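Schema walk-through. Below, the input block comes first and the output block second. Nothing else is stored per chain. Lengths vary across the set, and this one has 384 residues.
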Amino acid sequence: MSRQAFSYWEHQRFLQGFDMAVVGAGIVGLTAAIFTRRLRPRARVCVLERGLLPDGASTKNAGFACFGSISELLEQEKKGGATALLEVVRARWEGLRLLRELLGDEALRYEAVGGYELFRAEEAELAQTCREHVGYFNDLLAPVIGRPDIFRDATDQVARFGLGKVCTMLENQAEGALHTGRMMHALLKLAWQEDVVVLHGCPVTALAETAAGVSLHTPLATIEAGQVLLATNAFSRQFFPDLDVQPGRGQVLVTEPIPSLQLPGTFHYDKGYYYFRQVDGRVLLGGGRHLDFAAEATTAPGLTELVQRKLEELLHEVVLPGQRPRIDYRWSGVMAFGTELAPIVRPLAPNIFGALRCNGMGVAMGAGVGKRAAEIAAEMVTSF
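--- output ---
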C-alpha cells in the first residue's frame, strides 16, 4: 500500500487534530469512541481499523448474549476464586445491559431465549457436579442477575429439541441471543452520528510519543492524537509484547436453511468449548479450539481439518442427528485470553490506554470495557 497525496480537506477533517484516536473498530473500540464523545463533547475522535471489517471477533462471533454456563463458572472460580468470578459476571451482565441500552433490542434483534448446557453419557460425572451446583450459583449470582432462579435442570426438554446423545441438560434462563451483523452495523451508525470519524483499511503499524501526545503510523499517513486507546484485543502485543494476552482462534460453520428447524436458545457443550444456535432457519455451530490449543493460539485467520471435522461430527450426531445438511458458510475469528479473569483496562504508556482481553466474552463485556476506558482517559485529561 503506497502513500498517497491527500487533499487539504482530507487532512483537515480526517487526518489531523484528534484528541483521541482509537485503534480497533470492534465492540470495545466503537463503544469507547462513542462514550469519549459523550464525556467530552468538544473532543475530536477517530477510530482506525486495519480491515474492511473488524479483524478480530466482533463481526465473527456467534451472537451469544451470555455470562457463563455452570461448567464454565466452575472452571473460572477455580482460576480466580469466588470474589473474582462474581466481579467478572457482574461486568458481563452490566456490559450486556449497557449494550442493549445503547443500541436497543430491536436494532440488536435481541431474543431472551435462554441458554442450555449439554452433557453426553461420557460426561456423567461433570453433569452431576454441575447439577449439584445449581443452587450454589443461583444464590451466588442472584444479587447480580436480579432473579433467584437463573439455573435449573432442563433434562426433560431434550426430546423437544431433537438432540442426539444428550443425557443431561441444564438451563440458564437469563441468557439471550442477538444478531452480530446488526449489532456492529448499529454501533458504526451510532459512532458516525456521535461525530466519530471511522477509517477502515487503515492499519496502525507503530505508535510514538510526541510532545503533543502520540503519533500513529499507518501505510497511508501519519495521524497525530492527544491520546490513543488500543482496542486491538488479541493483536495488542504488536505494540506491547509483554502484555498478558494470548490469542485464541474460534472456528465456525453455518448450514443451509433447514425446514422446520426448532432450536430456540443458545447451546453450550464441553465447558463452553463448543456452542450452537439457530440463525435464520440455519444452524450456527462453532468452537473446538481446545482440540489443539497451540495451533489455535494465533491471530491468523483460517480453518483446520481437525476442528472442522469435529464440528461436523457434532452437527450430525448431536445437533441434527441423522441429518447431513450442506454447509454454506465457514469462518474463523480471533479472541484474546489471559491468566486473569478480568480484562485489561488501564494506561499502558504516556497517553496510551488499553481496553482489551475479554477472555472470549466480548459481546457481554465489550460495551462496559469501552465505556470504562473512555472514563479513564477522560479522568487523565481533567487531572492536569
